[in-house]
Structure formats: C-alpha cells, structure tokens
Amino acid sequence: MTNTITPRTRPMTLPPVNKNEVAAASNTKAARKRAAILLFTLAAVGALLTLTPFYLMLALSLKTPDEIAASPWAWPHSPQWINYVKTWTIEGTGVTFSLFFKNSLTIAILSTVGTVLSSSLVAFGFARLRFPGRDRLFVLLLATMMLPGIVTMLPSYIGFKYLHWIDTLKPLIVPSFFGGAFNVFLLRQFFMTLPRELDEAARLDGASYFQIYWKILMPLCRPALITVGLFAFIGAWKDLMGPLIYLNSTENQTLELGLRTFQTIHGTDWNLLMAGSVIVLIPLLILFFFGQRYFIQGIVMSGLKD
C-alpha cells in the first residue's frame, strides 16, 4: 500500500469588514427606498387628482337629479343606466346622439387616414430624397407652425364657401390630406433613424422610390405612424372651432356641437349632460389604453437623430 500525504490546507481568511462602508451602503439603500416611496406617493396623489373629475362625471351620469342635489360626490346606490339611453335618443330635436357620433367618427377616421398618408409621404421626401432647396423648404414648412390658426380662418372660410362646401363635412376632412408641419417633422425624424442601406439595397433590386416608401419604410415606422394617427384622431374628435364655423344644420353636427345642442335642451339635467360627456370620452379612452405603448415609443424614437 502506498501512503498518500494530503497537503494541509490553510484556513480561508476574510478581509476585515469596514463598518463605515457597511453603514454608508445601508444609508444609501434607505435613502433610495425613501425616495421611491416619496415618488410613488406623489404619483398616486397626482393620479388621484387627475381621476377625480372623471369619477365625478361618471357618478353624476348614473344619478337622478334628486341624488345629485343631495350628494353629488357619493357613488349612486342604484346606477341609472337609463340616462345613457335618454342621452343617446335626444328628445325634441328630430335627431339622435348617434347621428352626432357617426359624424364625428366619420370625420375622425378620414382625417386620420389623410393625415397619416400625406404626412408620411412628405416626410419621406424630406428625409430620404436629395433635391435642390430641400432644407430651405423644410424650414419654410416648419415656419408655418408659428402661424396662428386665426390668421387663416377667414381665407379658409372664403375658399370653402367658393367651393360650396359650407355645411358639409368636406372642410373638416379634405385639408387633412395635405399634411401638417408637426406631423411631417415627427415622421421625418423617425425616417432619419432608419439606415439608408435599406434604400440602397432596394434600389439595387429595382424598387422605385414609392415602393421603398410603401413596402420597406412604412412597416418599420409603425410606432411613429400610430403616434401621428392618435394625434390626428384626437384632434379631429375634440375639434369644436371647425364644426362651429363650417356646419350649420343640426344633422351635420359633431359630438362637440351636439353636446352644446343637448345642453340647450337639457340645461339643468346634469345627469344627462354628464352621460353625454362620458359617451364622447369613451373612444378616446379606448385609443389611449390600446395605443399608449406605441405612442410613447414613437415619441421617444422620433427624437433620436436630427
């Protein structure tokens, strides 16, 4: 038998603990925890203050006039969903709230389509094409953002009156198919973040500029396109000045004007008026919840590159 000698192992020694470093780390961790709690508290308070008007509007829409007079802030014991039915079928006007809803939805959808298509096409030209005077034209386009809308209000009205478009939905839809400075700027910034090698490879394969725009760049710009679409839809849905100027007949009114008509008829019925306000708000809430991720992504990525 062979004797094996096992080497003696030294005991492992740990470095001495620095009590000052441990205390500093503990204090830093505690400070971060307090800061997180403070930020969470401020965010909760801000959210509560923001949601308070929505809660009051929803609560009032489900009450009777007597309950509103007794306790406007309390949640109704028996919600009156019939208020929404009464609001949807406006009495004494010959029209229904659904007609206002249809007009607003038609204007918002067509305006969104026109804004996205026209703004993306103009932005593609400024971002990917090279032609004389491109930068000066882009600066001129941005300069139109500083022009107040009230300056162009009267000339626009005269032009639409000459075209016999007054009291129709055309003045609220057709201008969206000619782009917009802010939307063009937003999409141009996003186009410039995409590598130009994509264009060069497509050109080598025989693709035209429109094919590059439609088949290659547009699918990659989904967050920015959704952002522009949300801006356009919300702007058209909440527009009051345009319908107030161009629409005269009751059957052509949008929801914003319809609420005013409804208030004229049911001025003291706050439950019905709040029910109408909730109906106007519902599509915007749906868009926000389903599109907020793309909205934030489009805003962030559009500012990555000049």
Q: How are the SSEs placed, and which strands pair?
A:
Blueprint: H1 19-61, H2 65-70, H3 82-88, H4 97-128, H5 134-143, H6 149-162, H7 170-173, H8 181-191, H9 197-204, H10 209-220, H11 222-237, H12 241-246, H13 255-265, H14 270-301
CATH class of the largest domain: Mainly Alpha
| Spans of at least 5 consecutive residues with low confidence | none
Number of domains: 2
Query: Shape, please?
Result: flat
CATH topology grouping of the largest domain: MetI-like fold
- CATH homolog superfamily of the largest domain: MetI-like
Which architecture name of the largest domain does CATH use? Orthogonal Bundle
- Number of contiguous helices: 14
Radius of gyration: 30 Å
Structural class of the secondary structure composition? mainly alpha
Helix fraction bin:
55-70%
SSE string, helices as H and strands as E:
HHHHHHHHHHHHHH
The overall pLDDT, averaged over residues, is 84
Content of β-strand: under 5%
Distance between the termini: 81 Å
Major sheet details: none
Beta-strand segment tally: 0
